[in-house]
Structures are given as structure tokens and as C-alpha cells.
Fold these 2 entries.
Entry 1:
Amino acid sequence: MIKPTLTYDPLTQEYYYKCSREEKDIPKQCRMKWSAGNTAWKTKDWALAMRAAELSGIGTEMFRDKLLQPPARLTLPDFLYDYQKEGIQTIVANKNLLLADEQGLGKTVQTIEALRYIDVRRILVLCPASLKYMWQEQFDQWSDNLLTQVVANGKSAIVATNNVVIANYDLVSKRYIYEQLRAWSPDMVIYDEAHYLKNPTSKRAKASFLLGARADRRLMLTGTPMLNRPIELYSILRFLKRETVEPYDNYKKYGYKFCNGKEGPFGFDVKGASCTDELNYRLKRTVMLRRLKKDVLTDLPSKTMQIIPMEQTKDTKNIVKQEGLFDVAKILEKPDANLIGEMATIRRELGEAKLPQSIGYIKDVMASGVEKVVVFAYHKVVCEGLYEAFKDDGAVLVYGGTASTDRQRYVDRFQKDADTKVFIGQIQAAGTGLTLTAASHVVFVENSWVPGEMDQAVDRCHRIGQENKVTAQVLVVKDSIDHVIMRSMFFKKRKIKEVLK
């Protein structure tokens, strides 16, 4: 009797199932067609091929992939959502994992909570530059006794006694930083926005992968593991799948299998896609945990806000020094009274000075898979700077001087036109009365010190018709008065929720 086998031919893009005559009922049941030339049953449908493999008993043998381990059994805090608990338990159980939850589901919180249950002493977090201080803020909020260092620039000295070092991808390709981190020898490397490493020949990818090569654990985080085509996954999968497993172990094998690869006049063409159902199956089976908002929506809070601290630049550092002349305690007592006069001038100057960083951050958000974003600022000049940066993305702008007829026209464009990806609004002018439910992601480039104004602005997206959780992020310059005020405001809101829950 012939032992059943299942093979794939990249030229015909068909699966061929061979079995004995006695077992022909299985391929017939799976609606496969007989191919006399190949003396096998054939189909282009991956699901049907897998069904035949399962019925014949070879489904568990046909791949030599090392499977994901089931979630560890842990007692976790009640404030976590069920899907987050599953994520934490899966991180703990697997030394190599791609956590690919859709943006806004809390990959950072899951990661930091998981560290409580993992025996690692030195943790390296690699991320885009715009997220370095966000990670530090999250460690301050969620971890207890971990000593954390952010690598500020290419001349920074790594403190050997730190538990966590946070660096951006472009810095680790600098020889001085790379050599220090290699000597520090992390036990675990966390790669945030891992799609930044889709080009394995780039300097940052090479350095980042080398730093994780000797680590005991590797965790990659991204809501968009594949931005355009399957080849972008190859470098991530090759890195995480340490053992030799076809087709992850060979670029051309992977290209033929999943990228409709073919030899062309300019070399090996891997711009296409093939066997996508199989790739999805193998990802989830071997290396990837991915949840979508629509699947866990019943678990989610209606809206969340988080602070994103940004590194001080030469321009913003000078303005933060001027802020040092003001009494922060008095501002905290009555923040809205300090929005006029000299303090107001300094806040406007800070808003302008941090525009380049803010624009970079918003572009990172959009590159991570967010289709539409609402951006709020306080000053007209900052709004105009944002508009100039995003007008090629079909941006619309509503501020104090916008005519009422134009306001609604711009809102309609944002709500209905797929090419209008950015809505820019001045908090006072666009923070009330508008419906912007086409987006579920809000970024405050500048903030109001009046909590009600910010809540109202976020509620432009969180209205009837919104099908997703709304995520709002507040960009602040690290250690500025804005940063202090926002942390105080968030703390008070959290305490109110604890009392009124």
C-alpha cells in the first residue's frame, strides 16, 4: 500500500496528493481532481489539500516545523483582558515568538507583564527612535524593580548593571553602541515594530539580528508583519525559526513557495504572493500569535489614552530650560490659568520646535498599518506645519479661521474619501461638534491642560458609528512641563476610575 504524501509544485501552484487506490475516497471527499500525468490527485486550494492530509493521518507529519508551545498556566492580575492574559502566557511559554496583535491591543503591556515570569537579567529593547521614551514610560508604569536605560545617542555609555536597555534601530548599527551592547550580552531581545527589519541586508537589520543571535529569547512585536508582500516576512521568519526548516531556511525556496517567485530579466522576482493560506497556517502554527480588534472587541475598553514622551532635541532642550523658571506646583494647582502670557508663548515655541519629531512619529503610526489618523494641536502655526507635512496624504485642516461650510466639507472628505488619510484639527476649533469616526487613532501633537477639552477632542472619533476601540496618544517632550502636567492628569483620572468603577 502506498503511503499518502502531499507535495507542492511552484510552477503549477498546485498541491499533489498521492495515495493507494483503496484510499481514493479521501481526495474525492476533498474535491481534488485526478491528474493522470502526475499519477496524483491535485488541487490549488490549500484548505482542501490540508483536509486530505488530516484525514489520511499525515497532517501532523508533513511539516517538520517546531510548534508553538501552548500558553503557560499563570495566575495573572484581574485588570488584564483575557486576550492579554493569553498573550502573556504565550510569551512566557515560547522563547521565539512573533506577537502580531493589531495595533492598539496592548503588545507593550503584555510584553512587560510577561517579564515578571521570565528568568532574564538583561533585556534589550530595539525600536524606532520615536518610541524609545514611550518604552521607558511603560516600564516605569508597569514594572517594579527593573533598572532602565535609554540609549540617547551614538556616544552613550551602556551601564552594565542595568536590567533593561532601550535603543533605536539606527543607533545599534553604530559601531560604538553595537560593541557595547554585544559585550553587555542581553539574555532577551525585544524587537518593536519588527517590520523595520524587513530588509535583511540593511545595516540596522544586520546589527539587530546579530545582537539577538546569542540571546536565549527573541520576541518580535508588530501589528503589520507584512506591509505589502510575503517576502517582507522572510527575514523575520528566518531569524525566529532557528532550526533548519523548509522553506524558511532558503531564500529561493521561500520565494518560489510563497512569493510566486520566478527568474526575470533583472534577477529573481519575489514581488508576488502564492500559497497565502498555507503561509498563514504555518505562521500561526509555528511562530506567530495574532489577534484582531474585531475578534476581541468585546474585551476592549471603549477608548484609551497614553503619553508618548519624545527625546529632547537641541531646539526643545533650550525651551525646556526656560520652563524651569516657572513654579510647576502652582501650575498643577490651576493649570488652565497658565495658558496665557509668557507661559503660553513658551508652549507655542515648544509646539513648533517639536514639529519634526511629531511628524516623524505620525508617519511611523501610519506606516504601522493605521489607515486614517486624527491629529490635534493647540496653536494655528503648529496646525499649518502639520498640514504642509501631510498634504500629500490628502490632509484636511480645520482651525479657528476655517469657514463653517468648509468645516463640514473637510469632515465629509475625511469620513468618505479613502485617499484623505489625515485630519488635522485645532483643539479649540475642531475638538467639539464634529464626527470623525472614520479614524480610531488620535494623536495630540500639543495638548490642552484642561482635561475636558482633550476628552471632547477624543470623542470626535468615539461616537455612534465607531466600530473600533479609540486609541489616543499624547506627544510630549520628555521632562517638559507638558510631560509633568499630563502624568499628573492621567494619574488623577486613573484614581477617579478606581473610586467610581
Entry 2:
Amino acid sequence: MTKLAFIGAGSTIFMKNIVGDMLHFEALRDAKIALMDIDARRLEDSRLVAEKMISAMGTGSTVEATTDRARALDGADFVVTAFQIGGYRPSTVIDFDIPRQYGLRQTIADTLGVGGIMRGLRTVPHLWAVAEDMARLCPDALLLQYVNPMAINTWALAERFPRLKQAGLCHSVQNTVEEIAHDLDLPAHDIRYRVAGVNHVAFFLTLEHEGRDLYPMLREGYRAGRLPKPPLLMPRCWNKVRYEVMDHLGHFCTESSEHLAEYVPWFIKDGRDDLIEEFKIPLDEYPLRCVEQAEGWAEQARGLKAASGIAVEKSHEFAAEMMNAIVTDTPYVAYANLPNRGQVPQLPVGAAVETPTLVDGQGCQPTNVTDIPPQLVALMRTQINVQELVVRALTEENVEHIYHAAYMDPHTGAELDLRQIRSLVTDLLAAHGDMLPEFARTRRAA
């Protein structure tokens, strides 16, 4: 019997997607599902929803809810992680409020920039703890990791636990295909594509519909002012930044414009509010989204708990598809983030890279991609510079590399000078306090 351990299962709606997807596969319908979270109340909500889904689908799956991580992991075949260390309060608020005092404006702050750096410092030690338990309790299990900052996490896990079977998963590729289909009035399932890069800064190397290259349509539509259309997924988040980058660099990015705007030095600039207005950049979007989504998710969870039956529809997440592919030895292609072992020779060995990945009974086998255009490689390296320094800070317990990472961040360096960045990072380390690993707490006045 297949066992899934879901670490961070108090995220009821996301748990519903992953577990609900599993129940659609014959090979997973009788799985043992261990839900784990430190929040006992939210965990109980998730247990109730999972049991209602199992009842609705008429499967033989069983659910156990526990606050004991080791108990959840014991004997697992697959492990899903979905948690946010520090939560909205205090950590997300800190990551926005303190930089704002220095004039550094952000949109999402969970992947790169000073916000992404701090989140990586908070998150990696907890992922290491999960990996350490897995080495002892389920050494052959595959970790399916849904936590940001994805690339930093994946790289750091491989550095400390090189034998760990892991894949970092994101939905940016699927979401972007839906958005492009929306803009071009095409069915998303008919679009064919090939993507590669680093998570959130990967690019569509090919993008076709019935053998026709879609890039001329995207470029012409953007230059004529017809594209992008009003947002499909997030009402405040127009895709103008991605179109502008495509117009200059030739290819469409997999991550949303609100994310991409803060990964590069070109859009959020002191004294250039005209850029914010022209490209419709939603500053401070993530804190606002956190509040709105928490309210929405709480309402959804209440509805699911009260419902006598739950409709179990498949999501577009990769996790259950990958589990089924491995259990049944049925080939499936997902976009997964894995340590670069040569599959992308244009990028540094060890860095976390996102490529098409064949999944079957042999596990995850990444496709080799050797033709990323040099201008895109150059942009990806600016992201990898920051990621590597954060990973080195964590693995070497070297606080200076935290500062070095912030110095090298494209957006931070475009807004602040070296002394401002150092002062800002020191303030962030002090404010996060015990949320950070000890080596980063011991130099608060650096």
C-alpha cells in the first residue's frame, strides 16, 4: 500500500488538491495518507476534508492526522512539503515593512531579493530536518517540495543530503500556458511548448499551436497594444512586464509579471513611478494577497467542513501524476526542479534547474536542454548568483554570505547602495530573530 506523508497539511485547500488528485488514480485510491501540521486545529479541518473526499470517491484510502512529523514520515513512499516558516505574521510583514523604510519596494518577496533571501534562511533548516527524518524513516521516499524559495531550497537540500530523492514542484508553467491561451483565444490543451531555466525565471523556448509558432502573434499583439488582455488569474496583476521582457529578450517567462518585476533591475526604480503605472506593477501585492487568500481559504474550508459531500475535481498540480507514474511505471513528463547534474550545461553544476522531466518507475529523469539563448542564460545567472550565496551562507554558517547575496540581488542593487543594503540586512536579521538559524542570529549588530 502506498503511503503519502503530507507535511504542512494545515493548508487545507492545497492538501485538498493533492490528495484529491491522488484519489483519481486506481493505483493510489487505497493509499495511506498521513497529514502532519503543527497547528492542531487546522490539521483537524484537513483531516475532515480528506475523509469527506475519500467517502465521495468511494476509495479505500485511510487518513491519519498527527502533529508528530516522525510518525507521519515513518514508512512513507512519497512526502509532500507545503509550509511557510514564520507565516504572514510576523515574517512576511517584516520582509516588506523594513525594506520599505529604506525605500526598497517589493511585490511578492518570496523567491529572490531580500525577502526571498530571508525566507530561504528561515525555510531551509526545516527542510533539512524533514530530510534528516526521511533518511532514517523512509530513505527511499521521494520528496515533492512545494515550498518557496524553490531554487534555494532544492539546491540546499542537495548540498546537505545528496542521496535524497527530491523534486521541487511549481505551477508557474501550467499557469502561464493558461494565460497565453487566454490572451490568444486558444485552447490551453492544444498548445505545445518546451521550457527550461531556473524556477520562476525559466522561459518558453518553443511555443506552438498546431505546428505554428505563437511568438509572432504575441509580439505583434503586444506592440499593437492588444496584449496582454485583462488578467485571467489575479485581477490586480497585469502581464505587461513579461511582455516587455519578451519584446527585448525574445522569449516569454514562466513566472508572473508581479514576480518578474522584482527579479530584475528595470521596472521598480526610485523616482520612476511612471514605470509602475505603465507596466501596472502591483507593489506590496503579496501582503494584500495573504490577507485576501486567508479569508477566502478559511471560508472555503468552512464550506468544505459543512458539506455533506465534496466534489473532487483534478487540479493541474504535478504531484499525484508523478506518484502514479512511479507506482505504475507509466511514463509521465512534468516540469521539475532538480540539481543540475549536467542536464543544463550552460548553467552551473549544482544549481537548481527546471526542465522537462520524465517520471516513471525509475524515478525522475531530467531532459537535457542545451539550447537556451545566451541572453536568457545571462539573466538566469543573475538569479543563481544570489541563490548560491544563500546556500553557501546556510551550509557554511557564514553570515557574511547573507550580505553578499543581498549585494548581488539585481533589484536591491538597483535601488540601494552597499551601505544601505548592509544596514537593511542587519535590521532584517535582528527583526526575524529566533526564526533564523543560530549562526544568523549571533551577528545581529554586524
